[in-house]
Design goal:
alpha/beta, Rossmann fold, 3 domains, LacI/GalR-like_sensor (chains A, B), 5-stranded mixed sheet, homodimer, 6-stranded parallel sheet, DNA-binding, 434 Repressor (Amino-terminal Domain), 16 helices
Chain lengths: 371, 371
DNA sequence: AACTGCTTCTGAACCGTTACGGTTCCAGAC
DNA sequence: GTCTGGAACCGTAACGGTTCAGAAGCAGTT
C-alpha cells in the first residue's frame, strides 16, 4: 500500500468531466447520486478518476455549495489539557462526542485557551454550529461565536437570551445541599469556590467580587447558599468564601487550609465542586480533623472519585449533559417550533447524595458560647 | 447581550460592498489586511457590516479560496468513548490537542467508530491534514484518508510506505522487557494481548492469527517476544497467547484467569498493555497468588495506575507521542526536505521500568521436573 | 515637465463544487 | 403514427470569498 503519485496539478471534477467528455453534473452524480446515471458510465467515471488521481469531490467546495460542513465546533475557554484531565469536563466532552458520533458529525475542538486572544479561530472554523461549554460571560470568543449565523448551544454558562442552553438547575441543587447542611445544624460555615472571573484571585472573594462574577454557574451556587443560610439567620457577609483559579485537588487543599487557618470555628466546608472538596478532605486529614465528626465537607458534581471517598455531594449527569447539548444542536427539532426565535432550555436532574462526610456539628452550642 | 436579528437574506461581502459603493476587494481587505485601506474607510465598512448583520467573511468560502481549512482531522477507529476513557489514548489525544493549540489549529474528531461503515465522513471532512491513531491496516477509513491529497501522520500503526509516522520502537521495547523476564529465569510464560484484528476473538490466538494480525503494534510486540524467547530455547508455539477484543481491566482479569486455568505452570505473565496487566494483577490476588513471588506480571505503556501499582512495564511518553504527531503535521519542516516524497519517521524513547511485580520464579527447576 | 514613489482602491480571474431546471432519447401505450 | 413517461444526461448559475496586477490620485524630486 503506498500513496498515489500526485500529478502536477490536482485533477478536479471539471477536468475529469472534460477528460470523459461528460458534464460536471454527471461526474458529481457519479459520486453523490449513483441512481442518476447508468452503472456503466459510473464505472467509467470512477475508473478514470482513479487513473487521473482524482481524490473525489473537494469537501470544502462541497460545503460551500451545500452550506453544510458536517462538523460542529466546541468552544471551551480553557487549556485543552484541562478538558482532558478534569473528570467533569471529560464527561461532558464524551457526551458531546457520543451525540456527534450518533449523527455522523465531526467534532472540532477550537483552540481558545486563556493565552489565546486571537478570536479569528472562531471566525475561521467551518462548522454548522457551536457548543459552548463553561465560558465566562465576558469572553471575546463567545461573542465571536454568537455573531456567526449558525445555531449554538451553551452548556452550563453563561445564560444568554435567545441561545439554547443545557445545564442543571444550579440554584435548586445548591439549595438542597444548603438545606441539608442547615438541617444538620451547622451555622458556622465556610465556602470553597472555583474561579469567579478571568482575573486570577486565589484567596478570599469579596461580596463585590461574588456579585460581579463572570462565571454564572459559580455565582448562582453562591447565591443559593447565601439565600438559604440567610433564611436561618446566617449573615452572608460573615461567611468566608475562598476562591481558587485553578481547579485541582491540590488547590482545594490549600484553599481549605487558608480558610481553616483564618476561621477555625467553622464546622462545615461547602465546596462548589468535588475536586475542591477532595482537596479539603485531604487537608482535613492532614490536620487530624475527623470528617464528619469534627468537620463536615460537601462537594458538587458527583464524580467517580467523590463517590469512592463517600463525599456528600450533588450528583449531576455530566455525560447526559454533553449528549443533550449535542442532540439539541444536531437534531433539528427546532424546525417544529413555530416561533423562529424560540429558545430551548434543557434542565438536567440533579440528585443530592448524602455520603459519609456530613454530620451534625460536634457541639452545636460551641458557636454560642465561643472561646 | 442577545443575538443579532437575522435579516431576510444573510448579507454577504458582495452585498456589503454594494451598499457601501466600494469594491469587494476593499471589504475583504477591511477584515484581512487593515493596512491596505484608510482607517476611516475601514471604520465605515465595519460599522455598516454591523448594521447589516454581516457576520464577517464566510469561513468555508475563504477556505475554498485559500486552500486552508485551519483544522486537522483525527481518525481513530474506535468508539469515541474509548478515546476518552483509556489513559493511553487520552494522553495521546491531549498531546495532539496541545500541538494544535500551539499553532491555533482546530482539531476535528472524525466519527469513525466500529459500527460506522460510512467512509463518507472522511471524504467530507474539510481539513488540512490527518492524524491517524491506532488503526488496523485494513481499515476502510484509512484508505479514504490516504486518498485525500493532504498530509497525514500515523501514530503507532499501521506502517505505510510514504506516510509519516510517530511511535516507539515497539520491537526494541518489548525485546528489552523479554530480556528482563528471561534474565530473571522465566521459561514458562504466558501472554495477554490486545485485539489483533477487527473480528472479535476473546481467547487463545493461534500462530496463524498472530501472523495475520491487522494491528501492527500488537504483532510487532508478539514477534519481539517470540524471537527473544526463541533464542533461549522456548518454542513459541507452546506459549499460550490470550487475546481480548476490549481493552479494560476487567478483560485483563478474565484473560489472566483463562490463561492460568489452562496453564497453571506459567511463572510469568507478559501483557502487551498496562490495562491488561492490572487486570491480571487483580486476578492473581483473587487466586491468592503472590506477585511477584508466585507470579511475575509485566505490562506495557507506563500509565499512572501502573506506576501506582508498582507494575514492571515499559514506559512510553504518550503525550509526547501525540504532540510529536501534531507538530510533524502542522510545522511544515517537510518543505525543507528536497525530496518531495520523503517520509519522516519519529521514534520515541521508551524506558523499561522495573517495578515490584517481577522477580525470579519460585523454583526455576519446577518446569523441568513438572508434572 | 517628466519621473518616481506611495497610498488607496478597483476589476476580473479564480477556488471546485452542487442545485436547478431543463433537454434528449427511447420503449411502450393507444 | 402520435403521445407519454421515465431514465439519462447537460448547461447555467450560483456558493462567498481572495488575490494579483494595475489604475488613479497626489506629493515630492530632479
Amino acid at each position: 500500500m503506498s500513496r498515489p503519485i500526485r500529478t502536477r496539478r490536482q485533477a478536479t471534477l471539471a477536468s475529469l468531466a472534460a477528460e470523459l467528455g461528460v458534464s460536471r453534473t454527471t461526474v458529481s452524480n457519479a459520486y453523490n447520486r449513483p441512481d442518476q446515471l447508468s452503472p456503466e458510465l459510473r464505472r467509467r467515471v470512477l475508473e478514470t478518476a482513479r487513473q487521473l488521481g482524482y481524490p473525489g469531490p473537494d469537501p470544502v467546495a462541497r460545503s460551500l455549495r451545500t452550506r453544510k460542513a458536517g462538523a460542529v465546533g466546541l468552544l471551551l475557554t480553557e487549556n485543552l489539557s484541562y478538558a482532558f484531565r478534569d473528570p467533569v469536563a471529560l464527561g461532558v466532552l464524551e457526551g458531546i462526542a457520543l451525540a456527534c458520533e450518533d449523527s455522523g458529525t465531526g467534532l472540532q475542538l477550537l483552540p481558545a485557551g486563556p493565552g489565546n486572544e486571537d478570536v479569528s479561530t472562531v471566525h475561521k472554523a467551518g462548522v454548522d454550529g457551536f457548543i459552548v461549554y463553561s465560558v465566562p460571560d465576558d469572553d471575546p470568543h463567545l461573542s465571536g461565536v454568537l455573531q456567526r449565523p449558525v445555531p449554538t448551544v451553551i452548556i452550563d454558562q453563561p445564560l444568554i437570551d435567545g441561545v439554547d442552553r443545557v445545564g442543571p438547575d444550579d440554584a435548586a441543587a445548591m439549595t438542597a445541599m444548603a438545606n441539608h447542611v442547615v438541617e444538620l445544624g451547622h451555622r458556622s460555615i465556610g465556602i470553597l469556590c472555583m474561579r469567579l472571573s478571568q482575573d486570577r484571585n486565589d484567596g478570599p472573594a469579596s461580596m463585590l467580587r461574588q456579585h460581579q462574577a463572570h462565571y454564572h454557574t459559580q455565582r448562582t451556587r453562591l447565591d443559593a447558599l447565601a439565600t438559604t443560610f440567610g433564611n436561618v439567620g446566617v449573615e452572608w457577609s460573615t461567611v468566608p468564601v475562598i476562591e481558587r483559579f485553578d481547579h485541582t485537588v491540590a488547590d482545594g487543599a490549600t484553599a481549605a487550609a487558608e480558610l481553616l487557618d483564618a476561621n477555625p470555628e467553622v464546622t462545615a466546608l461547602i465546596c462548589t465542586s468535588d475536586i475542591l472538596a477532595l482537596g479539603a478532605l485531604e487537608e482535613a486529614h492532614r490536620r487530624g480533623l475527623r470528617v464528619p465528626a469534627d468537620l463536615t465537607i460537601t462537594g458538587f458534581d458527583g464524580i467517580a472519585d467523590a463517590q469512592r471517598a463517600g463525599l456528600t455531594t450533588v450528583h449531576q449527569p455530566v455525560q447526559d449533559k454533553g449528549h443533550a447539548a449535542g442532540s439539541l444542536l444536531l437534531n433539528p427539532i427546532r424546525k417544529t417550533s413555530t416561533v423562529p426565535g424560540s429558545t430551548q432550555v434543557i434542565t438536567l436532574d440533579t440528585e443530592l447524595k448524602i455520603g459519609t462526610t456530613s454530620a451534625q456539628p460536634r457541639t452545636t452550642e460551641q458557636h454560642w458560647f465561643g472561646p
